[in-house]
């Protein structure tokens, strides 16, 4: 679990990122979870946009994504979901204790 301090640090780093995935009408599926997992391994911190036409609400989508990818949900703000997962190979982000 992330502490409040760690989440603040991740939010400030995520601020400059552009969303690299979009969840639309089809909602969350296996293929999307696989791709997001790979992106998390490469980048550790990613943003995902939940589109207007998505049938699930953004909190449901955020939950499904964080569970499916075993990542930490940093925040849901507007239609943007921010996920963090420590990388095994490419560790870039050093979090405060």
Write the layout of secondary structure elements.
Elements: H1 4-14, E1 21-23, H2 30-43, E2 45-50, H3 58-69, E3 72-77, E4 80-84
Parallel strand pairs: 1-2
Antiparallel strand pairs: 2-4, 3-4
Note down, in words, how this protein is organized:
With 97 residues, the chain is α+β, with helices and mostly antiparallel strands. It has one domain: YhbY-like (Translation Initiation Factor IF3, 2-Layer Sandwich), CATH 3.30.110. It has 3 helices and 4 strands. It has helices spanning 4-14, 30-43, 58-69, and strands spanning 21-23, 45-50, 72-77, 80-84. It has a 4-stranded mixed beta sheet with strand order 1-2-4-3, with helices on both faces. Helix 2 links the parallel strand 1 (21-23) and strand 2 (45-50). It is globular. The protein starts with a helix and ends in a 13-residue tail after the last strand. The mean pLDDT is 95. This is Ribosome assembly RNA-binding protein YhbY.
């Amino acid at each position: 679990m992330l502490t409040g301090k760690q989440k603040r640090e991740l939010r400030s780093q995520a601020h400059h990122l552009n969303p690299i995935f979009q969840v639309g009408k089809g909602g969350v599926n296996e293929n999307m979870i696989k791709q997001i997992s790979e992106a998390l391994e490469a980048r550790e911190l990613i943003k995902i946009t939940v589109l207007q036409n998505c049938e699930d609400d953004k909190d449901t989508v955020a939950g499904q994504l964080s569970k499916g990818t075993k990542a930490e949900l940093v925040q849901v703000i507007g239609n943007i979901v921010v996920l963090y997962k420590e990388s095994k190979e490419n560790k870039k982000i050093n979090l405060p204790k």
